[in-house]
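Quick one:
INPUT:
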């Protein structure tokens, strides 16, 4: 959801204290390979990752060509139940690949032309920029429409409750660039693309995916929703946020997700989706969703200036991938030139020291291709939070120390011109400013320009918010106490001689 950068690694971690990870819950299905990969090796890789990366539960699917090699769940959900291959989870922005395929089906049916203006299919479509009339269907799917999170703050604005309402909200967007000239990832493009599917097909988007994608593939446990957490079925348990070594069950913040990151599915169902990607648009039983040419187009960038195709990123080394980020769940999908497909679903959200499940997907790729098993990741997530905890304690101690020295400071400051102590107090406002600016700073520095609300920052980095809030409170308290003490020492009338 929040950032879709290529193979984000590193900074993933956490020690899950007291969590017993049960054996993998493997659910067989049709077209499983007779001589598949070693499930024990997969389990060791997954358990090594979850034990240090802050994921109470993970589900994995591995395919090759038209065969499902492995589908299993590991760990537990928020209720304590074992995660299995049939545990439904959000896949966040992996949903964009489903939206792109739905559009390509309409293209192949002759109902949509990729390079035609969007307003040809959405008659009421317009944005607050005359250049918006030139936005094409392809540019929505390529993320090159010119709409960005900075020109339409899709998370900070009031959330729509339907694709039709999302299209109306998009009328307030301006453009950061001429359509087709610059890549900028935003969910708004895929809200519009899904709405286009609704209008052209005459079906609700959820119904379209069910009839034309999920049912033909036998993805019986899959659906898509409009609004979180309102539309989440009871079978989808709460995900988790992470703070100070603990994974905490939490409801996903209110967000509109359909078309961009609203698909709910299972590892078993997602394995069938990987087969279609690796089998030129056809299921294992020959059911064809799109042509091989359309599948290649979705997996390929239309311009060498960016790597994004249509719902997928493409590497120079031939790997095709996409990640998905909610604030309480993450997911990754990886297609390898060798024909392997890997999908990972995890029930913990994105954070400063955890970019999601991409690292596990990479480790599984190394395992299935080369038999290599990388050592478990360092507990960076825990380390970062412990550092932030130490800084929080330090801020409290320094703040108390300053408060205790207020009277002595006021005596010294009272001997100087008033402007000098006031000027020296102004830096105490910096932590307050940083706290208020956290959504912008995090969205810009970490998110590459993505929009995020303060509540969502608290989900993403509770330890950082905690330190920032404590530092702001202690500095503001010190400033107020010293100003009051200084004013009390200043004469209020003529001084007797």
């Amino acid at each position: 959801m929040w950032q879709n950068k290529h193979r984000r690694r590193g900074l993933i971690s956490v020690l899950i204290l007291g969590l017993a990870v049960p054996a993998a819950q493997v659910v067989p299905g049709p077209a499983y390979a007779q001589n598949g990969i070693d499930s024990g090796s997969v389990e060791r890789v997954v358990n090594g990752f979850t034990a240090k990366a802050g994921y109470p539960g993970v589900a994995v699917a591995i395919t090759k060509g038209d065969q499902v090699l492995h589908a299993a769940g590991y760990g537990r959900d928020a209720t304590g139940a074992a995660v299995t291959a049939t545990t439904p989870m959000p896949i966040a922005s992996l949903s964009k690949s489903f939206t792109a395929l739905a559009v390509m089906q309409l293209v192949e049916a002759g109902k949509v032309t990729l390079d035609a203006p969007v307003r040809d299919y959405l008659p009421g479509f317009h944005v607050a920029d005359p250049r918006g009339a030139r936005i094409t269907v392809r540019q929505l799917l390529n993320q090159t429409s010119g709409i960005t999170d900075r020109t339409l703050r899709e998370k900070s604005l009031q959330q729509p409750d339907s694709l039709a309402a999302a299209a109306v909200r998009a009328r307030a967007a301006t453009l950061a660039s001429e359509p087709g000239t610059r890549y900028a990832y935003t969910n708004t493009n895929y809200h519009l693309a899904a709405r286009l599917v609704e209008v052209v097909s005459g079906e609700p988007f959820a119904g379209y995916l069910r009839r034309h994608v999920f049912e033909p593939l036998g993805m019986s446990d899959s659906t898509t929703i409009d609004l979180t957490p309102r539309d989440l079925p009871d079978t989808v348990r709460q995900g988790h946020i992470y703070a100070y070594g603990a994974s905490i069950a939490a409801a996903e913040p209110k967000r509109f997700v359909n078309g961009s990151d609203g698909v709910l599915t299972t590892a078993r169902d997602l394995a069938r989706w990987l087969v279609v990607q690796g089998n030129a648009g056809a299921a294992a039983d020959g059911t064809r969703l799109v042509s091989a040419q359309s599948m290649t187009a979705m997996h390929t960038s239309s311009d060498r200036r960016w790597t994004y195709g249509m719902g997928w990123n493409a590497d120079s080394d031939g790997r095709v991938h996409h990640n998905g980020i909610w604030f309480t769940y993450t997911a990754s999908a990886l297609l390898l030139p060798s024909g392997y497909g890997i999908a990972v679903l995890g029930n913990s959200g994105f954070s400063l020291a955890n970019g999601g499940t991409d690292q596990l997907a990479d480790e599984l790729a190394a395992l299935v291709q080369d038999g290599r098993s990388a050592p478990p990741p360092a507990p960076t997530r825990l380390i970062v939070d412990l550092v932030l905890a130490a800084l929080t304690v330090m801020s409290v101690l320094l703040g108390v120390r300053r408060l205790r020295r207020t009277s002595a400071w006021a005596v010294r400051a009272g001997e100087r011109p008033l402007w000098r102590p006031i000027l020296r107090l102004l830096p105490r406002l910096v932590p307050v400013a940083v706290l208020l600016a956290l959504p912008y700073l995090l969205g810009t520095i970490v998110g590459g320009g993505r929009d995020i609300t303060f509540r969502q920052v608290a989900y993403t980095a509770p330890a950082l918010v905690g330190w920032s809030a404590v530092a702001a409170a202690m500095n503001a308290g010190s400033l107020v106490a010293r100003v009051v003490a200084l004013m009390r020492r200043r004469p209020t009338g003529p001084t007797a001689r």
